[in-house]
Write a structure and sequence with these properties.
InterPro entries: GH, GH_1_N_CS, Glyco_hydro_1. This is 6-phospho-beta-glucosidase. It comes from Xylocopilactobacillus apicola. With 459 residues, this protein is an alpha/beta fold. It is globular, with a radius of gyration of 21 Å.
Length: 459
Amino acid sequence: MDQKFLWGSALAANQCEGAYLAGGKGESIIDRLPAGKDRFLVMEDPVHHADQNYDFYPSHEGVHFYQNYKEDLKLLAEMGINSLRISISWPRIFPKGIEEEPNEEGLRFYDEIFAELARYQITPIVTMNHFDTPYYLSKNFNGWAETITRECFLRYAKTILTRYHDQVPYWIPCNEINMAKHLPYVGAGIQAKTPQSVADAINNLLIANASCVKMAHELDSNLKVGCMLAAGNTYPATPKPEDVMLSIEKDRDNLMFVDVQVRGQYPNYYLKSLAHDGIKLNLSTEEKEILAENPVDFVSFSYYNSRMCSVEGSQKSTQGNVFATMKNPYLKETDWGWQIDPVGLRITMNTLYDRYQKPLMIVENGLGAHDELVNGEVYDQERIDFLQRHIEQMQLAISVDGVETLGYLSWSALDLNSASTGQMSKRYGFIYVDLDDKGKGSYQRIPKASYYWYQNFLK
C-alpha cells in the first residue's frame, strides 16, 4: 500500500476528555446523558427527561484524556500509528454556542494537542461536531432544527479552520450525520421531535457541511473535507423481490445523506417521501447553490456491522449501532448483540465507491467487548481477530476491487465511555483504562495484547 496510507485509530471528545466544565467549557447535549437504563430515555425523549437529575453522567469525567493527553498520545505514538482521528468539543470553544468570540482557554487545549501530534508526526483527522452540539442551542432553539444553530456552528467552524488549517489536513464537519434521522437528539440536538423538525435539522446539517467545504477550500486549497456516515449494508432476508426492495429502501435512508454531499442535490426518492408525508423542504436558491457547488472531497464512514430485513418481520432481532436488525444466521454476535461481518465491510466499501467514485476513509471500526484485567495484563484475542479479518477485507476491496481508500482508523485508541450505553465495560480500545461502569477506578492506562499486535502489524 501507498506509504501515505493513514493507519491509525480514533477518539471522541465527549467520550474521552471529561473535564466537562473545566477551562470555560459549556454543556454539550451528551453531558445530559446518564449511564444505565435512563440513557436511552433521555435520548428518545429529552423534553421530559434531559433536565432531570441522575446519579452518574459518564461524559463529565470521561477517561481523563483532558488531564492525561500527553501520556495517551505518547502511548499511541509508541504503538506506531501515523494518524489519529479526534474531535474538537464545540462547547469547549463556544460554551453556549451563541457567543461572538471563542473561549481562548479551550482553543489553547487543542493548540497543545496538535503540537503533541506534530511532535510524533501523527496526522490529525478532525471531526468538528461529534455529537457535541452545545446544550444551550438544543434547549433554547431545538438544536439543528433552527437555522440559528447552523449559523453558530459556521462561526465555530471558521474559528477552528482558521486556527488549525496549517496543522490539520483532513476535516469532517459532522459525525455520523445520518443519526440526525435515527436518533435526533444525539445527532442534531433536537428536543421537540416532529417529522418537520427532523427534516429541517437534516437540511441545516447538510448545508453546514457544504458551507464548511466552501470555507475550507477558500482558506487553503490543500484542505480535504469529507462527510461521515454510520454505514453498513442491509441484506434482504430472502430473494423475495419485496425483501430486496425493502433492503434498498433501508439503505437509502442512510445513503441519502451522502447523495446530497457528493452529488449536490437531494435525490428524487427523498423528495417524494417528504411530499408523501406532507413535509416542506425549506431550501432557498442560495442554499441550493451551496449544496451544488461544494461537494465533499472524500467519504468517511464508521463500520461495525451489516443489517438484514424482511417484509415479514421477525421475532429474532438484535442490536447494532442504534439500528435494530434481524438476526443473520450466518453471523456471530458480540456480547452486545452486534453482528460481526468482515465481508460486509468490503461490500460497504464497494457500495460507496461504486455509487460516488470518491476516496473512502474508514474512520471507525472496532469491537466492543468485556476485557478482563488479569495479573496486570489484558489478552483481547477476540479484538485482534476482529480487526485482522476486517483489515483483510479492506485490503481485498483496495487490491482486487480497486476501491480508492485513504486510511483505516480503528475504534478506539483507548477505552472510552460507550456512546450508546454509557458503559466502560463495553471496551473498544487498544489501551485498557482502569475504570468501571460507575466511574470508579484509578484511570491507569495498560496496553492490551491488541496494542502489541497492532504495533507489530504497523511495523
